[in-house]
Amino acid sequence: MNRSHALPPRLHDIRRKVEGYARGYGLDFYDTVFEVLSFDEINMVAAYGGFPTRYPHWRFGMEYERLSKGYEYGLSKIYEMVINNDPSYAYLLESNADVDQKLVMAHVFGHVDFFKNNFMFRHTNRKMMDQMANHATRVRRYQDALTDQRRSGVELVEDFIDRCLSLENLVDYQSPYVRRRADPELEDQQRTTVAVGFKTDREYMREFINPPAFLEAQQKKLDEEQSRARKVPEHPERDVLLFLLEHAPLERWEHDILSIMREESYYFAPQGQTKIMNEGWATYWHSKIMTEKALDASELIDYADHHSGTLATQPGQLNPYKLGVELWRDIEDRWNRGRFGKEFEECDNLEARRNWDRRLGQGREKIFEVRRHYNDITFIDAFLTPEFCIDQKLFTFGYAEKRQRWEILEREFRQVKEKLLQMLTNFGQPVIAVENGNHENRGELLLVHRHDGVDLKVDWARDTLRNLQSMWRRPVCLQTRIEGHPVELRFDGKEHGERRV
Amino acid sequence: MSLKIKQDQARFRDIVRGRIKSNLKKYVQKGELIGKQGKDVVTIPIPSIEVPRFRFGEKQQGGVGQGEGEPGDPLSGSDPQEGQGGGKAGEGEGQHLLEVDVSLDELADILGEELALPRIQPKGKDRIVATRFKYTGVAPQGPESLRHFKRTYKQALRRQIASGQYNYLRPVIVPTREDRRYRTWKEVAQPETNAVVIYMMDVSGSMGDEQKEIVRIESFWIDTWLRRHYKGLETRYVVHDAVAREVDRETFFHTRESGGTMISSAYKLCRELVQEKYGSGWNVYPFHFSDGDNWSADDTRLCVEILKNDLLPVVNLFAYGQVESPYGSGQFVKDLREAVGKEENVALSEIPDKDGIYASIQQFLGKGK
Predict the structure, then answer these.
(1) For B120, which DSSP code?
(2) Which residues in A85-136 belong to E strands, given as ranges?
(3) Within this chain, do residues B104 and B148 fall inside the same structural domain, yes or no?
């Protein structure tokens, strides 16, 4: 943005101090640019997901309207927004008091340290700020170019973006971290079409080592493999957007916009998959920096007020800031006192467990290690303990059909942990993959939902299929389970169908 | 500074407009807008617009929460009726209701488009003229109160420079009598478009709360539509049972009288109002609502007479809405239809219940009067 947003001297001094404290604790972050924005501007940036420029789309306008209202009603005043970028960008609200600015800065340095060091972010584009601006330019260009046709280009493009967004979560969240596809060249080299059986030098033994029946079976297996190879996709493809990019009959501009949406989806995904850790980490550090270093005595009340505001839990809601920061503190404490490992686990004396202290002092070291190598799932899986669960009063809830209300179900550790993990798995999204691009040999697209106990929201699923169909052009099908029965939902461009399979 | 996002916001508002339009019927019937009316805007709650995705159904999924309570206790703060999703982990992805401010003018336009209402032609456009004053230029003479300071100063500066009196080291400008400039004005004739709505309502015992609610909703939409066409819209309220009296808006909707019904009393009062204050130059809209019960056939005859002789010749539109009630006989609308149904500036409508409001508004305002 322009120069007028540069930090005024007073904030510049605060920033230097806070940055010094943060580095002093061992936080390691990209250079961070703070910009001071007015309400309207900060609402805009917040609506744009932290970026100063995004492609034109109504939902940003909706978010902006909602945020502006929220301010008008005096609901939300503290923003901490920071972009995973090198250098990082973060925003300060012009009219906030110094104590709030300090808090936000300390919090932001925590986030940037996390972005820089956590493995989930390793593949993300650190020049995303520029890339977002590029995306905006590209989308705008299509809007202009398409404008003189039947409909206005703005509507045409926006409509397509709506459909892309509807499929946005159909990406393979693990794919940046694993290799899904075999190297095609290597595969080809190793591929044979005629079964040769086991090797042997002794010609007279061949009949015995590879009897005709065995060879036949081998040949059959090979043929099967080949026919599988002819199937598209060869293996179920979780990255549905990629599949569409590669195989759907899209116009050039559609192809480009879909690829933009996919890129942004992958960019934002790690933030969603480390929400608890990341917010907890930043909260941990802002509270540490503020209470141990940065806070003036006169600012204590305001700080306490705003800090507790971020950690408040609504009844029945899980606040990632709260859960995260408590877990980080718990980990630090456990590794400081040596409350882990075989000896501790096997101790069933409650009293001894509670007072367990080996004076290890490895807490700080441990949390820095954890922030590097974990994401929310592994974080919860490894560090959620029964004691923590009780201390934090965690519970599972569900909908009681009979009484038409949401109820607390369980406080049992295993259930809570299982539910938490289930909610975090695959980013809390249903696992859906492309099974076949030539379903029933009619060029139809078949998706399969790997049902793990929870049904899809069926009306939404139908609407989503409609959007998918508009890209695939041929009918599309989705196999899932509804109320225990396997079903295939189908949309052929005109009508929705449903049949048992 | 204008923000880039204003474009997105404008697009969003377009979409909202479309939503309101397609749900207009619902909004009209429920009357939920009226409570949220500000001076020039209404706040309309619309379900937040969401992009459909493959996602889990909330009710089966449940979640994890934090806080007090025993297993089996209801989650506090989550009303399933409002579908807030009971608090999902992380960000609440539940359904938000979005409140959108829409100006009354915009709302009127939406109503007009959706009901295909013709624009109102103010009557006697040429005849009714009001004069307004408009500043149109600058002249060397005029009253001191209209002196144009800046132009006077410029004139003096120009003269001093031209005559070589101007000293930039000591830039003192002294305007003389000739330098002074004054604003001049012109009289502009503008067609006057004042209008008055006279609401009359039967408040006898047979009109219940539901009937009044219907009248209230209708009057809101009528006001909105007429206000779009006339700058100064006045509203007058008349209640009647056996006698009629003028009241304020608040009383109009909340009075309850018992006793008989003589509609002619209201029409007489209306006639008085029109003759006294809203003579020529006004666009007059009497709207009358009742359950169709009248005291006697004689009184009905009297009503028709007043209408024919005194009201219909001067008003833009006379509208009668008959709200169905369990007690009313519903005879009055039939009598009116017989007597004046063919007149061009009469709109009659029967409103069985709230669902009928939509059609009735169309009948009233569809005349384009």
Answers:
(1) P
(2) 88-93
(3) no
| Maximal CA-CA distance, chain A | 97
Flag if A407 and B53 touch (Cβ within 8 Å): no
Per-residue burial over A126-158, b = 16 or more CB atoms within 10 Å of its CB, e = otherwise: bebbebbeebbebbeebbeebeeeeeebbebbb
Could you tell me if residue B85 is inside a domain? no
Question: Element (H or E) spanning A36, and its range?
Answer: strand A32-37
Report the candidate in B125, B9, B24 with the shortest Cα–Cα distance to residue B362. B24
A29: closest CA among A94, A99, A92, A105? A105
Task: Report the amino acid identity of residue A327.
Answer: L
Question: Do B141 and B209 reside in the same domain of the chain?
Answer: no
Residues B181 and B202 in one domain: no
Q: Are residues B252 and B304 in the same domain?
A: yes
Strands A88-93 and A32-37 turn out to be parallel
Strand-pairing partners, residue A400, are A405
Strand bridging mode A82-83 / A32-37: unpaired
A428: chain B residues, CB-CB within 8 Å: 56, 89-90
Beta-carbon contacts of A376 under 8 Å, excluding residues fewer than 6 positions away, are A273, A274, A275, A276, A277, A424
B289 and B312 both lie in a single domain: yes
Q: Strand locations in A328-463, DSSP E?
A: 394-400, 405-410, 432-439, 444-449
Q: Shortest CA distance to A53 belongs to which of A127, A129, A126, A162?
A: A129
Q: Which tokens is A348 given?
A: 């069933």
In a domain, B340, yes or no: yes
The number of folded domains in chain B is 3
Rounded to an integer, what distance in angstroms lies between the CA atom of residue B362 and that of residue B348? 11
Asked whether residue B341 falls in the same domain as residue B198, the answer is yes
Interface predicted TM-score (ipTM): 0.81
Task: List, edge to edge, every strand of the sheet that includes B63-66.
Answer: A405-410, A394-400, B63-66
User: What residue numbers bound the domain in which B142 lies?
Assistant: 130-189
Residue A143: closest CA among A156, A132, A133: A156
- Cβ distance of A64 and B5 shorter than 8 Å: yes
Q: How far apart are the first and last CA of chain A?
A: 56
Smallest CA–CA distance, residue B225 to chain A, in Å, is: 27
A-B C-beta contacts closer than 8 Å: 210
Q: Is residue B148 part of a domain?
A: yes
Nearest to A62 among B49, B67, B71 (CB): B49
The answer to whether residue B72 is domain-embedded is no
Sign of the alpha-carbon dihedral angle for A116, A121, A127, A128: negative
CA distance A249 to A243: 11
| Cis, peptide link before residue B352, omega less than 30° from 0 | no
Task: Report d(CA B140, CA A224) in Å as an integer.
Answer: 102
| Cross-chain CB nearest to A64 (options B8, B48, B89) | B8
* Residue B321 shares a structural domain with residue B267: yes
Per-residue pLDDT of chain B (369 residues; tens, 9 = 90+): 468 888 898 888 888 888 888 888 877 777 666 656 666 777 777 776 788 999 888 777 788 888 888 888 887 654 433 333 333 333 333 445 677 778 888 888 888 888 888 877 766 554 455 677 888 889 999 999 999 999 999 999 999 999 988 888 888 888 999 999 999 988 877 666 678 899 999 887 777 788 888 888 888 888 888 888 877 788 899 988 888 888 888 888 877 777 778 888 899 999 988 888 887 778 888 999 988 888 888 888 888 888 888 888 888 889 998 888 777 677 888 888 888 888 888 888 888 888 888 888 888 888 777
CA distance A451 to A501: 14
Sort out which chain A residues have CB atoms less than 8 A from B18's CB and list them: none
Comparing CB atoms, the residue among A162, A169, A316 nearest residue B65 is A316
**In which residue are the tokens 């002294």 written?**
B174
Query: Do B218 and B167 share a structural domain?
Result: no
- Asked if B133 reaches chain A (Cβ–Cβ under 8 Å), the answer is no
The owner of tokens 């075989």 is A342
Read off the tokens for B125: 């456009």
